[in-house]
Amino acid sequence: MMRSMYSGVSGLRVHQTKMDVISNNIANINTVGFKRSSTSFKDSFNQTLTSATAANADRGGLNPQQVGLGANVGSIVTIMGQGAAQRTDYGSDLMIDGDGFFIVKDPDGFSFTRAGVFEIDAKGNLVDANGYKVCGWKAVEDPDNPGQQKVVQDTVTPINIYEGDNLYVGAQPTKNVEFTGNFDPSVSPQKNTVSFYDTQGNKYTINIQFDKDQTAANKWNISIPTVATGNNQGKVEVTINNDKKAYMAAPQLGANSLEFDANGKLTTNPSSIKLSGIDLTQLTDDKGQALNMGTTTGVVNGGNAGEIAIEFGTVTQFKSKATLTSEMKDGNQAGSMTGYSIDGNGIIRGTYSNGQSKILAQIPLANFKNPAGLEKVGSNLFKETGNSSEFDGIGNEVSALGSRIQSGALEMSNVDLSYEFSEMITTQRGFQANSRIITTSDEMIQELVNLKR
């Protein structure tokens, strides 16, 4: 009789544990990145009254007779399902859409989280709500593409937006200029300008002229006008930084004409013309006096000082309005950081006052063979365990996991309130039923005691 009472007590205990889990789920319904837990039960050991017997010629087989001794908690499992998105429009708030965990550095090593409530601290560190530094891969100069950055996927380290030369971008000289638009064959000459930056970020603009050839119907001669008289005779007038005039030795054009076919398409091959011999170290003013702009190397293009490629590949010649324009395809002034952005693959790009941008770092994700095996340690953090698989110290690119990072959004709790309330009702009823076992067993014992009266 006492067995039934102890079974009832074990039932109360496991239902109380389940109610504790449900209560924690509901308490964290609005906790960013929270993952709910689910409880299951298992029966306890059984007392065997009669063992099973096999059938023989005289008697059939008998099943074992056993009395169960209550219930135990079978498992409390963390459910790693995706939570709903909450839009915040705050650039450093990040949400993982898919698998994976953000990696943060705490005093004991690495921790992992789905809560992307991040900030940039006063020193430029990307930190979570606990002040722990978010880890990722840093960007370095790309040796194959000078002036460009590439991410090195190596051991993760804390991300600092302000470190090194991230706060600014240096000036880059112009290497390529492109002309687009249309030549009107009835308008000659057609005048335009070519602009370019030097190694110090100074912008230079010179005139270029296209004259219709009188002997060929679809040919245009190219020239750079020079000063006819005065102290700078034979030199080219140049405007510096859109306001200051100076003069330099006339550069050379690699070709002096463009030709089109009867359909108005360019036939000149190659379509790119070199503008070479640009010497910015010998500039003069109106009086012919030397003018120092701080440039000692001129315009650098792959080691060829003073050379720019001018591309004409898309220009046309139609009986239509002349729309010829030129545009620098590269080169820029120096600029300071004005902001940053984080794309869907976790790449952090700095934006600068000169309109340029560059890669600063990349946020990778940790992935585990058994995410439910991670241990919750509070503050929205998880730690690896022997049953989760180990973090390799490097992480995975977001896209490699089939995931995506949403900037300006957070992942909410995956708790379903209607489900939790349903579980609460069944748990409450289970608790009540087990309490009945105890009261009924107590009444039976009372009746047994009363037999002696």
How would you describe the overall organization of this protein?
The protein contains 2 helices and 37 strands. Helix 1 runs antiparallel to helix 2. It has 3 domains: 2-52 and 64-81 and 419-450, no CATH class; 87-161 and 363-411, no CATH class; 176-322, Tick-borne Encephalitis virus Glycoprotein, domain 1 (Sandwich). The strands form 11 sheets. Strands 7, 8, 12, 13, 14, 15, 31, 32 and 33 form a 9-stranded antiparallel sheet that branches. Strands 18, 19, 20, 21, 22 and 24 form a 6-stranded antiparallel sheet that branches. Strands 23-25-28-16-30 form a 5-stranded mixed sheet, with no helix packed on it. By secondary structure, it is mostly beta strands. A hairpin with a 5-residue loop joins strand 10 and strand 11. The chain is elongated and about 140 Å long. The longest helix has 34 residues, at 417-450. The protein has helices at 2-27, 417-450; strands at residues 37-43, 46-50, 65-68, 71-78, 85-87, 93-97, 102-106, 109-113, 116-117, 119-120, 126-127, 133-141, 149-151, 157-158, 168-169, 176-180, 182-183, 190-197, 203-212, 219-223, 235-240, 244-249, 252-253, 257-259, 272-276, 300-301, 304-305, 308-311, 316-317, 325-328, 335-342, 347-352, 357-362, 375-378, 381-383, 404-407, 409-411.
Q: How many β strands by DSSP?
A: 37
CATH topology of the largest domain: Tick-borne Encephalitis virus Glycoprotein, domain 1
Strand content: 35-45%
Helix coverage percent: 10-25%
Low-confidence parts: 300-304
Distance between the termini: 20 Å
**Mass-distribution shape:** elongated
Largest sheet, strands/sense/barrel: 9 strands, antiparallel
- Number of contiguous helices: 2
> Can you tell me the CATH class of the largest domain?
Mainly Beta
Mean pLDDT: 91
Count of discrete domains = 3
